[in-house]
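Final report, Chapter 2: Outcomes

The project's central promise was a pipeline that accepts a single protein chain and returns its three-dimensional structure in a standardized token representation, suitable for archiving and comparison. That pipeline is now operational. To close this chapter, we reproduce one record exactly as it appears in the project archive, with the input sequence first and the structure output second.
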Amino acid sequence: MSIDAMPSDAVTGSASERRKVVVSSFVGTVLEWYDFYIYGTAATVVFGTLFFPNLDPTSATLAAFAAYGIGFFLKPVGGVILSRFGDTIGRKKVLVLSLVMMGLATGLIGLLPTYAEIGLLAPILLVLLRLIQSIGAGAEYGGAITMVAEFSGPRERGLLASLPALGVSLGILIGTAMFAALSAMPREQFLQWGWRVPFLIGFALALVGMFMRAQVQESPAFEKLKQRNLIHQAPLSDVIQRQWRRLLIAAAARSADAVGGQLFNVFAISYCTVTLKLPPSIGLTGVMLANLTGLAVIPLSGLLCDRFGRKPVYLVGLIFMTAFAFPFFWLVNTKEAWLIYVALMLQYGVGVKIILATSGAYLAELFDVRTRSTGVTLARTISDPLAGLTPLIATALLAATGAYWSVACFLMVFTVLAFIAVAVGPETHQVDIAEPDRLG
């Protein structure tokens, strides 16, 4: 029987192929978030000193963070460029290219000479590698959930498409643990070579991921399109012109975890340290515990959305985040470490992770198979610049009002927006994702 003659549900690949796809996608997502997290941490503790030494300490840190922020603005560009090839030449090829770009750029940052060694060329190369890293990362997560979804049967798609989200938590955890261990080194040794270790490990992660992805077959849904001569050569224009309603729904739905992730993963640490004058270890420990919580919440959310549908689980997560926006700050403002941990574990480890996990299958099922890679990636990366600016916006709101309520309301704007989008959007868990135009 040819692939064209097979029932659509049969075009999902073998169990062994599904395992390879899920694991390789997971490794790629770990690398993506590990890269972003160690760069952000290094920007805080070392890049200002080594790459922008002629500036005062505040300006040097701002310059290092500017290079970090560029990544969030370049991800949509990289996502649009690379995801088009995912819809025209194949999902697998783009995922391999994305991993090569991320791993190579991350590893080379660990080999960079400093300003003291090569002068102005050092920060220029740092920014250039950051651009390459960000462009590669732009297509990684959207491509990963597209690939996993297309290898999954309808009864398991929610669970399997949630698993790349585990890479978000694990990548942050590994990056946090790495810098926590290295921070115990004498300052001079850390500045000489210690800070390079986490970046060089990026080489190893990329090699493991590339080896695994080389063993993976192309998506059965994409192969079916090729055999039927249905490859779309202009997927971006199709998504914008014909599927714009789905794009708006998906982008609005995703905005809540984009803002929430950066608010509780980055701003919360600053709030505890700068505003509440608590030791940095409290915020960092809270974030680590929240990500550990996410390792259990993510697959559970995937299982639940397979049983009850995507929309009910997504909406529950958004309701929880909205309702807990003010209680989160009430708990944190007690300055009690254990209550801060509880607040972060609930809002970030439960609320944010529920919607992040559920969005995998939901976004993949929203878009036409011929333009899925482009649609999913565009819907996710549209919010990345906002995510990158979220800590700055939250800090500015706190400074302008002098009160936490402004930050809580900022979060609620996006959780309510996402709730409306998902509520008016279609339920997708029973659609045939291998066939074009399932949702009209």
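Archive annotation: The chain has one domain: 8-424.
This record, like all others produced under the grant, will remain available to the consortium after the project formally closes.
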